[in-house]
Design goal:
alpha/beta, four-stranded antiparallel β-sheet, 10 strands, single chain, Rossmann fold, globular, 293 residues
Length: 293
């Protein structure tokens, strides 16, 4: 079972908010060119400072600092092996599942230090949901049970609440109309694209504030990919979304901000339109124009 679905003590860390955050944010403010911190218009959803991540003696991330704005899509791009997925997993402490992993620096979620020793990782993972590259519905569970498994593991047993949250989450994942008449069918009976949206619904059911996506459409056909992209644009009205993608066109289509990583370092972070039309760093220009990577 996914460790993110275990329970734990909520010492000194507020529980997940009762719904999507409503922190105001403007995404039309130009960012300083080449800056590693997005323009501050409110408390950022995530403030990351001097983040270093190690696996044993291998340093995967090196002094990464940036702000991720609330209710916006931030794309993480860069060649394979540059630390994109490690960056994503450090935000909800999933890298800690690897024994030799350690981190230095600071990550604050709405100005609260998620690496404070008194903070239980499970509470962080409840507030910061994760959707993986390969859809991973639980094969022995029905569609409905897949959606509510996180709630039930966190002690929710009231049938009316589970029923309501199932419909709400499937609607948010743009899947309700396709499955409402077969909620008790096995989750693996769904198509690949539907399974990925089911995993998104499962992440949304526990009402996180931030949603992390690690190449969620890389294994999907163009039609299913378009549905995932449309869904992301809908969800950003209420959620903060951070997505890792190798698809430059996808990053340009759906993100408000883009961070370019290379060899574990943050090379450039700016508004997406600037990254793709007038980047400050030649290395960034070479990557987004396909000269390497």
């Amino acid at each position: 079972m996914n460790a993110a679905m275990t329970t734990g003590e909520e010492t000194n860390f507020p529980p997940a908010r009762p719904g999507p955050q409503s922190a105001p944010v403007r995404t039309d403010v130009p960012a300083p060119r080449g800056a590693a911190v997005a323009p501050k218009t409110a408390v950022p959803a995530l403030a990351i400072r001097r983040l270093c991540v190690y696996f044993g003696a291998n340093q995967v991330l090196k002094e990464v600092s940036l702000d991720i704005q609330a209710r916006a899509v931030t794309a993480i791009i860069g060649p394979s092996g540059c630390g994109k997925s490690t960056f994503l997993r450090s935000i909800n402490r999933m890298h800690e599942l690897i024994p030799e992993a350690r981190m230095e620096g600071e990550i604050r979620l709405f100005d609260q230090d998620i690496y404070n020793p008194l903070v239980e990782p499970v509470i962080v993972r409840r507030r910061v949901g994760m959707v993986f590259q390969k859809s991973n519905p639980f094969p022995t569970m029905s569609i409905a049970d897949n959606v509510t498994v996180g709630l039930r593991l966190n002690g929710v047993r009231t049938r009316s609440v589970l029923t309501e949250r199932t419909e709400q989450s499937l609607r948010m994942a743009a899947l309700w109309d396709e499955v409402k008449d077969r909620l008790h069918a096995p989750a693996i009976s769904l198509s690949g694209g539907q399974q990925q949206r089911l995993c998104i619904a499962r992440a949304l059911a526990v009402q996180p504030e931030v949603l992390l996506m690690d190449e969620p459409a890389s294994a999907l056909d163009p039609l299913a990919t378009a549905k995932i992209e449309d869904l992301i644009l809908e969800l950003k009205r209420d959620y903060t979304i951070v997505i890792v993608t190798h698809n430059m066109q996808q990053a340009a289509r759906i993100s408000d901000f883009t961070a370019f990583f290379y060899l574990g370092e943050l090379i450039e972070f700016d508004a997406t339109r600037r990254i793709f039309t007038n980047p400050a760093k030649k290395q960034t220009e070479d990557y987004v124009t396909g000269r390497f990577g």
